[in-house]
């Protein structure tokens, strides 16, 4: 799950300290915030305005799946709607593909949404009086693409999500999971670089949800799309996202990879979330390992070179498997033929339990 | 001060106003009269030109292709009843009158209804007017209408329109307010123009409620057209009035049932035509 592999590493969406303030006196509140640096509570008391998103900055790179995780009321839905200007920001700038979207006129904005930013909704939002094919072709239809061509493109998009045989059905005949596939096909048919996913799988049952998560990740990666994926489920964010943003009360609390967030939570709020998450496939050897010198000092009779070996990218699951294959109490972590650290059984157990690795060999 | 002086009599203001309108805007009313008369006579002539069974046959075929066989049969039976009760010409006159009145009502109510659903202020301004239009007994409209357009079909149509606009307008507003917000958001997020959103999302989603509105508009208009028999609008209303004044039970009953037949015909056809697409969805489901 490494994003830096993409050579271009181009930033598609750049969100620069964006604020959204709701309320009739929002402009005055914005002014007060920029001049006096009011807190959210002060804004509510003084202007009776609610801060939806406060000072959010983030960058989405090409080919990256970027998850925004937060509970209801955390401002995540507002944030995603700021990215395609369904909601106008009160302050700050959003640059999509190098263009400041606040400066686009109505027609340019429509064009930007039609060609570059797709969106998938939690409620799916299929048009009940249209067939699956017509629904999938909707984006192209409003863009003025001819019937023949748009149906062909929509059919191809439906193929990708596995609905080839359902094109002439109506949405009411489909299950929830299939409806959401149509929603995804509709977004893909327009071939945008960026797909905004607004809690698309939240209403589905767990098995279908998991299946769609995997399919979505695979599809997005194979098509090279970027996605901003909103969810209230940290496990989903970890499963899907290359990077994860955690939001609370409109503020971005932490940005990082799943491993960063799980091993290094920014505050108590994030640690509470992370507490229930299984680390087995998240945490890698390079996080768990301790310096060779530290191990040798504690175990002077053990030859480090004779230990079983693992790569720094091996996750805890792999390390456990390795440990079980030998009667030794440690594994050497090897990078480029050099032993860079040692993972002890005790250290493994500590990291599974969620304790910081730094004390792993202390006892 | 005498309390008697406080008595409210709008007639003392209204009558001069109508007089003023009559003297100053006579050419305008004359023009409206001529146009409405011409359209009405045209439709009526077309309906009476062919022999009754010819009309019935054409309606059967048209409705069969436009809607389905069931509605076509209902329409055919309703028309056959009008013919067999010996009130064919009167029925056709009423049909023409209602069709024109409803068409004009919809032309007025539909755009205003959309405006009212978009802008709160418009809705607030229209609502009391609608309340008054619906609570004043309908024959009261006939008085100024007759004063301006004199006796005949034109005042009848004007009064009918006044009566038919409110339900259509209210239900249009309701229908558009009920369009799911997520579908509107879909339209915007897809980059659809306001025009595309109106025609491809809002109107299709609003159709069921719009159908109810049209249906109410038709039925209330029909009731009003019958009442308009009092001012010489002809048609079935005139037959009912005649039955009433002469105490002819048979004629009154036949005319009354013919009105029911016309109502069933208009209701079935309008509903079927509007719901053609959505009923297909239901059938497949």
UniProtKB/TrEMBL annotation, chain A:
Reaction equations catalysed:
a quaternary ammonium(out) + ATP + H2O = a quaternary ammonium(in) + ADP + phosphate + H(+)
Q: Name one GO cellular component term.
A: plasma membrane
- Cross-referenced Gene3D superfamilies, in alphabetical order? P-loop containing nucleotide triphosphate hydrolases (3.40.50.300)
- Nucleotide-binding as a keyword of this entry, yes or no, is yes
Against InterPro entries, the record matches this protein to: AAA+_ATPase (IPR003593), ABC_osmolyte_uptake_ATP-bind (IPR051921), ABC_transporter-like_ATP-bd (IPR003439), ABC_transporter-like_CS (IPR017871), CBS_dom_sf (IPR046342), Gly-betaine_transp_ATP-bd (IPR005892), P-loop_NTPase (IPR027417)
Which GO annotations describe the biological process of this protein? amino acid transport; glycine betaine transport; response to osmotic stress
In terms of superkingdom, the source organism counts as Bacteria
Under Pfam families, the record lists: ABC_tran (PF00005)
List keywords of the entry alphabetically. Answer: ATP-binding, Cell inner membrane, Cell membrane, Membrane, Nucleotide-binding, Transport
Where would you find this protein in the cell?
Answer: Cell inner membrane
Q: What is its main location?
A: membrane
EC id: 7.6.2.9
How the protein sits in the membrane?
Answer: Peripheral membrane protein
Q: Name one GO molecular function term.
A: ABC-type quaternary ammonium compound transporting activity
Domain named ABC transporter is located at 33-274
PANTHER family, per the entry: GLYCINE BETAINE/PROLINE BETAINE TRANSPORT SYSTEM ATP-BINDING PROTEIN PROV (PTHR43869), GLYCINE BETAINE_PROLINE BETAINE TRANSPORT SYSTEM ATP-BINDING PROTEIN PROV (PTHR43869:SF1)
Return the similarity comment: Belongs to the ABC transporter superfamily.
Q: State whether it acts alone or in a complex, and with which partners, per the record.
A: The complex is probably composed of two ATP-binding proteins, two transmembrane proteins and a solute-binding protein. The complex is probably composed of two ATP-binding proteins (TmoW), two transmembrane proteins (TmoV) and a solute-binding protein (TmoX).
Q: Which NCBIfam families match?
A: proV
Q: Kindly provide the name given to this protein in its UniProt entry.
A: Quaternary amine transport ATP-binding protein
- List the source organism: Tianweitania populi
Automatic annotation (TrEMBL), chain B:
Which GO biological process categories is it annotated with?
choline transport; glycine betaine transport
Provide GO CC annotations from the record.
ATP-binding cassette (ABC) transporter complex
MF terms (GO), sorted A to Z: amine transmembrane transporter activity; carnitine transmembrane transporter activity
Instruction: Give TM regions.
Output: 45-65, 72-90, 96-117, 138-165, 218-239, 251-269
A matching Pfam family: BPD_transp_1
Where is it chiefly localized? membrane
What topology does it adopt in the membrane? Answer: Multi-pass membrane protein
Every ABC transmembrane type-1 domain range: 91-270
Q: Does Aminoacyl-tRNA synthetase count among this protein's keywords?
A: no
Q: Does the keyword RNA-binding apply?
A: no
Q: Which key words are in the record?
A: Cell membrane, Membrane, Transmembrane, Transmembrane helix, Transport
State the compartments where it is located: Cell membrane
Q: Which family does it belong to?
A: Belongs to the binding-protein-dependent transport system permease family.
Q: What is this protein called?
A: ABC transporter permease
Q: Which organism is it from?
A: Tianweitania populi
């Amino acid at each position: 799950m490494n994003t830096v592999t993409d050579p271009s590493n181009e930033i598609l969406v750049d969100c620069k300290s964006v604020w959204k303030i709701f309320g009739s006196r929002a402009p005055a509140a914005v002014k007060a915030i920029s001049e006096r640096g009011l807190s959210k509570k002060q804004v509510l008391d003084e202007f009776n305005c609610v801060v939806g998103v406060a000072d959010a900055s983030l960058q989405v790179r090409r080919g990256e799946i970027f998850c925004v995780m937060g509970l209801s009321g955390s401002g995540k839905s507002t944030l995603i709607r700021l990215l395609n200007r369904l909601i106008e920001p009160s302050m700050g700038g959003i640059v999509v593909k190098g263009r400041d979207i606040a400066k686009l006129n109505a027609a340019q904005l429509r064009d930007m949404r039609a060609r570059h930013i797709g969106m998938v909704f939690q409620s799916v939002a299929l048009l009940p009086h249209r067939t699956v094919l017509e629904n999938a072709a909707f984006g192209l239809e409003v863009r003025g693409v001819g019937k023949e061509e748009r149906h062909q493109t929509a059919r191809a998009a439906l193929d990708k999500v596995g609905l080839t045989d359902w094109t002439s059905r109506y949405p009411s005949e489909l299950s929830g999971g299939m409806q959401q596939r149509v929603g995804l096909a509709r977004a893909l048919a327009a071939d945008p670089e960026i797909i905004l996913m607004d809690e698309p799988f939240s209403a589905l049952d767990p098995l279908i949800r998991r299946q769609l998560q995997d399919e979505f990740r695979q599809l997005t990666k194979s098509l090279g799309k970027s996605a901003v994926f909103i969810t209230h489920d940290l496990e989903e964010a970890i499963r899907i996202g290359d990077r994860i943003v955690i939001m609370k009360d409109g503020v971005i609390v932490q940005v990082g990879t799943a491993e960063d967030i799980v091993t290094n939570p920014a505050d108590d709020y994030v640690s509470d979330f992370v507490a229930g998450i299984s680390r087995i496939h998240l945490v890698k050897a390079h996080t768990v390992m301790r310096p060779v010198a530290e191990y040798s000092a504690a175990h002077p009779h053990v030859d480090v070179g004779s230990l079983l070996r693992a790569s720094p990218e091996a996750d805890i699951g792999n390390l456990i498997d390795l440990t079980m294959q030998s009667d030794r109490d440690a594994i050497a972590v090897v990078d480029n033929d050099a032993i860079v650290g040692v993972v002890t059984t005790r250290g493994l157990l500590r990291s599974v339990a969620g304790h910081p690795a730094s004390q792993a060999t202390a006892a | 001060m005498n309390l008697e002086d406080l008595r409210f009599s709008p007639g003392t203001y209204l009558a001069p106003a109508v007089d003023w309108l009559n003297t100053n805007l006579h050419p305008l009313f004359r023009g409206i009269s001529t146009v409405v008369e011409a359209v009405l006579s045209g439709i009526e002539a077309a309906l009476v030109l062919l022999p009754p069974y010819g009309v019935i046959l054409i309606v059967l075929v048209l409705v069969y292709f436009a809607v389905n066989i069931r509605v076509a049969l209902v329409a055919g039976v309703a028309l056959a009843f009008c013919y067999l009760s010996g009130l064919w010409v009167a029925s056709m006159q009423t049909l023409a009158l209602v069709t024109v009145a409803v068409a004009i009502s919809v032309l007025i109510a539909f755009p205003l209804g959309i405006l009212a659903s978009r802008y709160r202020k418009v809705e607030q301004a229209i609502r009391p007017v609608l309340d008054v239009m619906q609570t004043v007994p309908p024959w009261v409209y006939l008085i100024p209408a007759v004063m301006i357009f004199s006796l005949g079909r034109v005042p009848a149509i004007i009064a009918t329109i006044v009566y038919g606009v409110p339900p259509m307008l209210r239900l249009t507003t309701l229908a558009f307010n009920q369009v799911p917000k997520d579908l509107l958001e879909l339209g915007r997020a897809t980059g659809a123009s306001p025009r595309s959103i109106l025609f491809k999302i809002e109107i299709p989603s609003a159709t069921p409620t719009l159908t109810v509105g049209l249906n109410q508009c038709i039925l209330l208009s029909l009731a009003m057209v019958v009442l308009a028999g009092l001012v010489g609008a002809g048609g079935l209303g005139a037959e009912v009035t005649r039955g009433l004044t002469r105490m002819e039970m048979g004629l009154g009953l036949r005319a009354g049932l013919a009105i029911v037949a016309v109502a069933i015909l208009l209701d079935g056809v309008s509903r079927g035509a509007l719901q053609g697409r959505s009923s297909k969805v239901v059938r497949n489901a």
